[in-house]
Amino acid sequence: MRRVGILIAVSLLVLTVRNLHAQTALSSFDISPAAHHTQVKLFLSAGTVKTGDTILAGVDLKMESGWHTYWKNPGAAGQATEIKWQLPPGVTAGEIQWPLPKKLPPAEVTTYGYDDEVMLLVPLTLASNLPAGPIDLKANVSWLECKEVCIPASQDVEVKLNIGGETKNSADATKIEDWKGKVPLTNTNGFSVKAWWEKSSTNDLRPLVFEFGPTVLIVTFTYDEPDFFPEANDKFEVESATEKLDSWDLRKLVKKYSGDWPKEISGVFTIERSGKKIAFEVNLPIAEEAPAGETISAQTQPENSTGEVPALPLMLLYAFIGGLILNVMPCVLPVIALKILGFVSEAKSSPRRVRALGGIYAVGVLFSFLVMAAIVIGVKAAGHQAGWGMQFGSPIFIVCLTTLVTLVALNLFGVFEVTLGGKTLDAAGNLAARHGASGAFFNGVLATTLATPCTAPFLAPALGFAFSQSAATIIFIFLTVGLGLASPYVLLSWNPAWLKFLSKPGAWMEKFKIAMGFPMLATVVWLYSVAGSSYGKNVLWLGVFLIVVALAAWIFGEFVQRGRKHKTAAAIVALILLGGGYAIALEKELDWRNAMPEADATGSLKESADGIDWQRWSPEAVASARAAGKIILVDFTADWCLTCQVNKKTSIEISSVRQKLKDLNAVALLADYTHFLGAITTELNRYNRAGVPLVLVYPKKAESEPIVLPEVLTPGIVLAALDRAAH
Amino acid sequence: MKTTLVLLTVLTLAASAFAVEVGKPAPDFTGTDINGKTVKLSDFKGKIVVIESYNSDCPYDANHYKTGAMQETQKDLAAKGVVWLLVDSVNPKNFSHRTPDQARQEFADLKMTATAWIDDSAGTIGHLYDMKTTPHMFVIGKDGTLVYDGAIDNQPDPVHDPRAARNYVKKAVGDLLAGKPVEVSQTKPYGCSVKYAD
Fold first, then answer.
1. Is residue B167 included in any domain, yes or no?
2. What is the dihedral of CA A403, A406, A410, A411, to 10 degrees?
3. Which of A52, A173, A296, A421 has the largest CB neighbor count within 10 A?
4. Is residue A685 domain-shared with residue A623, that is, in the same domain?
5. Cβ distance A163 to A51 under 8 Å?
């Protein structure tokens, strides 16, 4: 017996074990009070009590340093403390109210319990017919205390209570009240918690997701340290490890011992708000799957949260719906005018021809999408970053497109005609001919080209998904977007009867055609302003060039196409104008192939004196603002992104949002994607986006994930997100 | 990246879930017993094996041995050809750790009839079987399949005579010997936490 010295020093329990005989009586196992490491005392909230009242008894356990006792569910090991009351007749004890426990290490065998001190509270109710005078309240408290070893212990406690005419607080009432504050609330107090199985399980472990938040979303809270302490259950165990999915969801693993998977779950839900723990009891039904709406919010989860990889069929559906919605996004609207015109002019053609033209339009769209997919794949293969609408980052592309759209507008105004197949058309020319096969194809290409700077609801996740996939998937998704974009027209062309409400072709069409030129002019102005961000003040020379082009087009239309004499001379003049305009305005003055993007400057990007104090976005700017504990609003935008501009005008650069940002002392960062900066592409990809718009709101707490706002904003969405982020 | 993460999560889950799963082959291990002999689980193929995570300083274990109930179970099952392996995963710095000498003494004092007391002070077997408590019991069938994982009985307290309780291990072995499916194959283990090294 080499260990005798240590044994005496440490524990009587061990002695009993080492010296035991096979049939030792149970009584020899009792531990004398001196041997245990927890001191127990009984307190009452009142010294004198009126009959019929209920008071609180506090069983106070004070543990020596390093020792702990257990909660009602001890967790993976241990045992809950028990209180056995010996009360005089007329006094009844209620259930123990347990203060919120701590998770006790080690991680592989986590237990729930208390170190240092805990007071277990028990309501005692006094019958109304109790005689006045002193009574004795006694209890036997038994517990398991553990440090390196575990010791079961018990102790008798007692206290005197005076039954009198009125209830008077005792000296210990404050202490009891303090501990009462640590007992989880029995109502959820404006919070809602939901639970559902994340997926089915083939073994005895299954992930359970909790979602929590205020019942009313207007309430401005952020939550930290969300956790769930389960009630004990024989049939299953909720493992102690908690995985935070985002600021509103957490995941727990449930281990099943027997029977079916539970249909409901009870325990204590806890969160921290500005350093103060809030805990409340919950008894929740467990849904078999995530509630509807949850999956939609999941699509905007950043990659580092543990979302599922989106399935291809779902993404294809999104791509199709996204393509469909593109038709009503601001960038494509001018093209709709062209299409309506096309349908009107075809109204009296044979159905077969209408169908053919609808098909050719679709082919034009699909062809353009195929070309874009090829470019994206090529750029990716070359090791560069690719993004939706990236051609709009090229000033050369912008200049060409501006010129092209100017010509489309002039054509609609009747300044000149487009001749096809060598067939010259007179002024009252057959519109149908102009909207022949080539015209339909061209419309398809133009619609696609103008559509690319927009992302739309549904389109954003689909494209974000596509850009991270194989070449075949990219092509597949792009073509599906194209199908979505073209489908309304294809459908219309197959059912021309739907267009019957339109008037018969006639003189009004010439006027309508001219009217449709104005949306095109608006597109020109927009493209011109985009070019301005690349060329600065020099963009003036692009304007000069456009006027020269317009003049050449007029000469061409008036004197070459419709003129009778000096056609060659007129053609030469038009060519000289074009050549000269190109050489002087574009090459010499604008130096259009060597655009200098605006130098990165720091400082405010305020748009007006009382506007939002935008700072330039950079990962470092985000990091330093987060370190300073600030809420951050990030607007990923681009001059060529009309959706972004619309969002800004209607929902961001507005007085209520300005005021909210000021009130919250929030930082506003502007990430300008006009020139397709690589750092921004990287950031967009993190949120599974291939393009702008993307608006993020970072909550105050540095480790919480940013809130991803939808593609199309309303003031309410922005304000609610800022509220959610604030505290 | 995302795929990798998901895969990793799945693999981790799989590792923790399948390492010890009732109905699956019990993972093999090799250990050294307190007499310096090598003990290999797969050497006992063809026999029923009971594994007990052990720490007699834990009042729950102590109750089972002090009352003699555990020794009776061991003796009873040994007579039926069942192998009984004690796994002691207490780390060497813990007070409850036993050197081989102390362990041999304790083995004799307690009149155990276990097949072997394996020194697992590194916690290898404990972690492999995800042993949570002492006592945490496992029963492995003759074909090497894990058929029971959980508590010794349905009486999670350190004071009452275990003979009055429903002994899940005895029941599982009984079912196996009778050629019946094991009725209760999984329960929540109770007791003290296993004193693993940090």
1. yes
2. 70
3. A173
4. yes
5. yes
DSSP line for A517-530:
HHHHHHHHHHHHHH
A259 & A320 share domain: no
Cα Rg of chain A, angstroms? 38
Enter the ipTM: 0.72
Split into its structural domains, chain B has a count of 1
For residue A447, give its domain range: 312-594
Kindly state whether residue B108 falls inside one of the protein's structural domains.
yes
Could you tell me the CATH number of the domain that includes residue B186? 3.40.30.10
**Does residue A268 form part of some domain?**
yes
* CATH number, residue A262: 2.60.40
User: Angle A60-A61-A62 (CA atoms, 0-180°, nearest 5)?
Assistant: 115
Query: If you average pLDDT over residues A369-376, what whole number do you get?
Result: 86
CB A644 within 8 A of CB A693: yes
Q: Which residue shows structure tokens 């103060």?
A: A276
Average pLDDT taken over every residue of chain A = 78
Decide if B109 and A18 are in contact by the 8 Å CB cutoff. yes
Q: Which among B133, B150, B160 is the nearest to A76, CB-wise?
A: B133
Q: Chain B contact for A308, CB < 8 A? A: yes
Domain containing B117 equals 20-193
Give the count of domains, chain A.
5
Q: Does B51 reside within a domain?
A: yes
Collapsed DSSP state (helix, strand, coil) of residue B130: coil
A81 → chain B, closest CA residue: B157
**In contact, A98 and A74? CB cutoff 8 Å:** no
The minimum CA-CA distance between B106 and chain A, rounded to whole Å, is: 7
A39 with A21, same domain: the answer is no
Whether A179 is covered by a domain: the verdict is no
Domain CATH number, residue A619:
3.40.30.10
* Neighbour-count burial of A174, counting CB atoms closer than 10 A to its CB (0-12 exposed, 13-18 middle, 19+ buried): exposed
A260 and A153 assigned to the same domain? no
Q: What is the pLDDT of residue A307?
A: 36
Subunit contact B58:A149, Cβ cutoff 8 A: yes
Same domain, A658 and A560: no
By Cβ distance, the residue of A6, A20, A307 closest to B66 is: A20
Q: Looking at the domain assignment, is residue B15 inside a domain?
A: no
Residue A174 has pLDDT above 70, yes or no: yes
Q: Give chain B positions within 8 Å (CB) of A19.
A: 109
H or E stretch at A145: strand A133-146
A117–B contact, CB cutoff 8 A: no
User: Are A373 and A432 contained in the same domain?
Assistant: yes
Q: Taking the model in full, what pTM does it have?
A: 0.49
Identify the bridge partners of residue A635 per DSSP, sorted by sequence position.
A670, A695
Query: What angle is formed at CA A69 by the lines to CA A67 and CA A74, rounded to 5 degrees?
Result: 130
**Smallest Cα distance from A31 to chain B, Å:** 11
Residue A21 belongs to a domain: yes
Residue of A292, A291, A310, A290 whose CA lies nearest to A300: A310
Cβ-count burial of A190 within 10 angstroms (0-12 exposed, 13-18 middle, 19+ buried)? Answer: exposed
Residues of B in Cβ contact (< 8 Å) with A151:
59
* Cβ density class B91-101: b for 16+ within 10 Å, e for less: beebbbbbeee
Between positions 20 and 39 of A, the ones with CB within 8 A of B are 20, 22-24, 26, 29
- Residue A164 located in a structural domain: no
Chain B nearest C-alpha distance from A239 (Å): 12
Element (H, E) at A264: strand A264-273
Amino acid, single-letter form, for residue A451: A
Same domain flag for A377 and A468: yes
- Say what the pLDDT of residue A361 is: 85
CA distance A364 to A376: 18
pLDDT-derived band at A607 (thresholds 50, 70, 90) equals low
Mean pLDDT on A484-509: 74
| Residue A572 and residue A665 in one domain | no
